[in-house]
Structures are given as C-alpha cells and as structure tokens.
Amino acid sequence: MTPDPSPAHPIVQTIAGAVRGVRRPDGSSAFLGIPFAEPPFGARRFQAPEPTAPWEGVRDATAFGATPQRKAMAEITTIPEPSIPGESTLNVNVFTPDPSPASDGAGLPVLVWIHGGGFIAGSPASPWYDGRSFNRDGVVTVSISYRLGFDGFGWLPDAPANRGVLDWILALEWVRDNIQAFGGDPRRVTIAGQSAGGGSVMTLLTTPAAQQLFHRAIALSGVPGDVPVEQARSLTERLAAHLGVAPTAAGFASVPETALIEAPGFEATAGGPRDAESILRGMTTMDGRLGLGPVVDGELLVDTVDAGLAAGRGADKPLLVSATREEFAGFFTGRPDDFDAVPPARAVHLMGAPEALADAYVAAQVGEPTSLVAGRFISDVMFRERIIRWLAARGDAETWVSDFVWPSAVSGIAEHCLDVPFLFDVLDDPDVTRVAGPAAPQELADRLHGAAVAFIRGGSPGWSPAGRSASVIEVFDAVGAPATVPFASARVIAEARRLAAASPTA
Fold first, then answer.
1. Is 50 a catalytic residue?
2. Count: domains in the chain
3. What is the pTM of this model?
4. Fewer CB within 10 Å, N or C, the chain?
5. How far apart are CA 259 and CA 310, in angstroms?
6. Domain-embedded: residue 462
7. pLDDT tens-place string over residues 56-86
8. Of residues 115, 215, 349, 416, which has the active-site annotation?
9. Which domain holds residue 184?
C-alpha cells in the first residue's frame, strides 16, 4: 500500500491509518469500505465490536467493503441493496465535497445514514445512499454497516446484548474522531435512516450512551425494535432447540453463518385459508414489532423508545420524522379483486379495529376502495400513528413532521421506500424508474432533499414544528396535485387510542 499523489485518488489520514479514495466527475470524493471495527468473526463473534487496529501505508478505499447482508436482496426489495462477500463487514463509506482536513469550527455539517431492512437485511452499498447530491449542497455524508439478524440482535446469556446497537455507537465514535479529516464538523452530526434505519435513529435518540455522538435526527418510516428481553430470551431458546445447540454464545458460534441467517424463519407457517377475510384476520398481529431487533435490556437500552421520549431523552435534539402515505398498502392494492369484495368497514374491523373505530376510519376516506383503505390501515398502525404518539411524548421539543403522498406511476401508491431516492436526490439512478416510473418529478426531489439539507445545516427544514398536537405537517406531493389533509386517517386511530386510554375502564 504505497501513497498515490494523484488528485484522482485523494488520500486522507484517519486515526488508524491513511485511506485512498476516488475523486468523482462532479468534484466530490468517495472513500468506501473503511473499517471502523475488527471483523466480527471467530473469537469476536457475538462480542462487542472492537475498534479497528492501525495499519501501515495507505489502505485502498475505492470500493465498497463486505456487508453483513449475505444474500442479494435487490431483486426482492424496493431499494437496490447489494451483498458483498468478506469478513470485514463493519465499515463506513464517506462522501465529501472536499477531502481536506477542516480547522476547528470550519467543517461542513455531517449526515450519518443507517440503512433499513428489518434488522435482518439491508446494505450501505446502495446507489440510493450515494452522498453526491448532499455533497453538492455542502454536507459530508457517511453510510454505515452493522451486524444483522441473530449476530447483531439475538439475546445470549453470556454475550453483550444489542451488538448491532453497539456497532452503531462505535461507528458514530469513528465519525466523531475522524470526520474532521474529511472536511466535516464532528459537532454538527445528523443521524438519519429509513424503516428499520429510522427505528435505529429513534433508538439512538433515546439511548443514554449515544447522546453526545450526534446533534440532530431524521427518521423516515421509522419502526424501532423495542423487543422485550423476555421475548428475546424465548426466541433464543426456541431457536437453539431447533438448531440442536446450547442457547449460549458457544452453542450459536458452532452454527455456520449461512445456517443461522436462514434459521430465524423456522417458525413461519404456510398454507391455510388464503381468502380475503382470512388474510385480513391474520393482520391483527401486524403492529410493526419484529422478532429480531434492539432489545430493551435495561442496561444499554433502558426502556422503549416511547418511554424514553416521555422521559425527555433526546429532547435537546431537533427531530424530523416522516412517513409515506401508503407504506405497506401494496399487498392489498395489488389484489383488488380479492379485497374490494369486502366492505371497507368490515375489512378494518377484521384487522382488529373495534366497530366504532372501523366506521370512523372509513368515514375519513369515503369512496376509497377496500384494498386501499385496508392498506392504509395497516400502514397507519405500523408506521404513521406512532408519529402522533411521538409528538405528544416529545411535548415542546422541536419536532418537524412531513407526509410523503406522491403516488408512484408503477404501483399507484406512495409506498414504503419510495421517498428515499427523492431524499438523496438520485432520480437518475436506473432503479428509480423501476420503482417510481419514468417521470418522477425532479421538483419533488428538490423540495424533499432541500428540506433535509436545510435541517442538517440549520436545524429547521423550512416549515414550523408540528407541536404536541401535530397541528403542522408538511405534505410532499407533485406540483398541482389535489390538496391532502396530512395524516388524516392516522389521526382517527390516535384519537381512538387516546380516548380508550383516558376511559376509567381502560
């Protein structure tokens, strides 16, 4: 590893050693696959991450590093997220407008992106997470990896809990210690993520050990893990019995990585009635909770995100939260012949809503087909109504909310993940056409990306905070689209839950 003085390959000195990146046609530079921790294999498997050991010479950082995701997901998920083999899976990718050391107080603001994937999948190497547009607008961008599935979040009696969370924290410590060398300001760090990544942001926002590592937060379609420790322990015992090993770190270390990746689905059931009403009844358990994810262990994660917000943790940090209007509605809208035959109020009732709530919910969207109403209901339950709760819990803490309602020309809805290429302003990526259609509005990307830049740089996206009653929510749609009442259906659920909680018989 010898230094390359070519301006096409800038070199930056990190605490662990020098790295060689690549300068891109737009003038920005990318440094990819920089390890922030030692490979989490062998004796380090199921242990807390260890900072990477120093190296000599110049390390090549012109290609993405290995990913904790081990099988390609791009063909089955909305966001293209490639899997890359190798053992050094805990890496950061840095995109910077100017790879020159910043003097104190003169660095650029920093965005740290945490990918989604339900805590079992996802990759920081997606072209949709490229920081070039943020670089254009004066923001240094970092995407990070973290251990997934059981390796990252499985509970073990003789190993640290929440290893994936510890990975996030160590990555943020790497940013604190190194980002100034890439032109960034470690005192102006915004963490952001989508889906499980958005849930990760909310978890970090309420984690005492992370409070000094970032200063603002953006959560898109965030669903925290908040797995009770008893549930995590029970899953470990059942999984160990299925694999025929002891429910210990040594027992699980004896299981090949590929076998353990596949194992968490061992309890999935197939078959049974697949008519519309049976499917709707099966949705009563869909509330956004996941079997594997951050565990409320009482130590690193002292309580749930909701409880942490109510206790005031993270209240000193500006927060921007958002959701798409029809997050998970595609399952229903893709089968209109099945679901539209069921009356909409009955469908919502079958999904677990009391009859009065089902009637009120349908009344808030009169004339919509059952497939869309049912899809919005599951989206509200899993993603959107919790934002209303977060606002109430945050009280007077600065919190902004947006509602992404622009419907894809492909799916016809504002589905889960659709907002990500608009946020990163990467509409020229070929996969965006696959998801959004051939004419995704650049003006919408300009607005959403611009709001994020304004928030990262100045602490406000450009409209008023929502307030504890969610009185101000910004709507993102195409120019000239009909006016939309933001979070209208989610508010119906939130009000019903508020009244139920206030009832003396609740």
1. no
2. 1
3. 0.95
4. C
5. 40
6. no
7. 999 999 999 999 998 876 556 799 999 999 9
8. 416
9. 11-227
